[in-house]
Amino acid sequence: MAKIHPTAIVEPGASIGADVAVGPYCCVGADVSLGDRVQLHSHVVVTGHTEIGDDTRVFPFASIGHPPQDLKYKGEPSTLVVGRNNVIREHVTMNPGTEGGGMVTRVGNGCLFMVGSHVAHDCKIGDHVIMANNATLGGHVEIGDFAILGGLSAVHQFVRIGRHAMIGGMSGVEQDVIPYGSVMGDRARLSGLNIVGLKRRGFSRENIHALRTAYRLLFAQEGAFAERLDDVVEMFEANETVMEIVSFMRAASSRGVCQPKSGNAA
Prior knowledge:
The protein has 2 domains: 3-140, Hexapeptide repeat proteins (UDP N-Acetylglucosamine Acyltransferase, domain 1); 199-250, Udp N-acetylglucosamine O-acyltransferase, Domain 2 (Up-down Bundle), CATH 1.20.1180. 16% of the residues lie in helices and 25% in strands. It contains 4 helices and 28 strands. It has helices spanning 195-200, 205-218, 225-236, 240-250, and strands spanning 3-4, 9-10, 15-16, 21-22, 27-28, 33-34, 39-40, 45-46, 49-52, 57-58, 63-64, 79-82, 87-88, 93-94, 104-107, 112-113, 118-119, 124-125, 130-131, 136-137, 142-143, 148-149, 154-155, 160-161, 166-167, 172-173, 181-184, 189-193.
């Protein structure tokens, strides 16, 4: 049985899973689906065509599923899909998709969204992503698994951030960030690899060494970029971790790849 506080408003048609807790003064719209054991603390608003997965916790004054902040949005019945076991802290905002972005914003499993962070329309967020306080995504941003975005960072529309990447606090990210990369700065530049994160997640010394070598080759100042990319493929074709970076850099993108400053090492 769900536990719904007397002051909460749950509109007819909402789908409420087993053991859901809806706290004081929450509002749940008619097209909302809450999975099993979802917890909405007080003053949470969940509206629109929004699905929240099992065991996700949403804290006071979060606004989930309201229309996108996009002037091209014309009221199309787009969706917001939030996965399982996420923590959505106070004043977080998440918007559904738009017709121009595939009609869906999608959040993975096991993520942490700290106070005031924002997920814009048509974003695709992987599993175990952390967005620190007031980190902000523009529309159509893609975030890979285990990426971390520092406090007050901002990511430009259509930017891709690879798996296990680290975005420094107060960084403005205008270009794609390679998997395992670390960026920082007012206009973010690559500062190396996310070595601390790789060690914490159990990457072997050999794999980290391969990543370091590939990084230095890819971002060396000598030679054409295409030639350096071919050299990395020839040297590390059997290394899945390095080849993930190669595939990321070869994929079509409108933003280009974030580069290091000259003389920067991994």
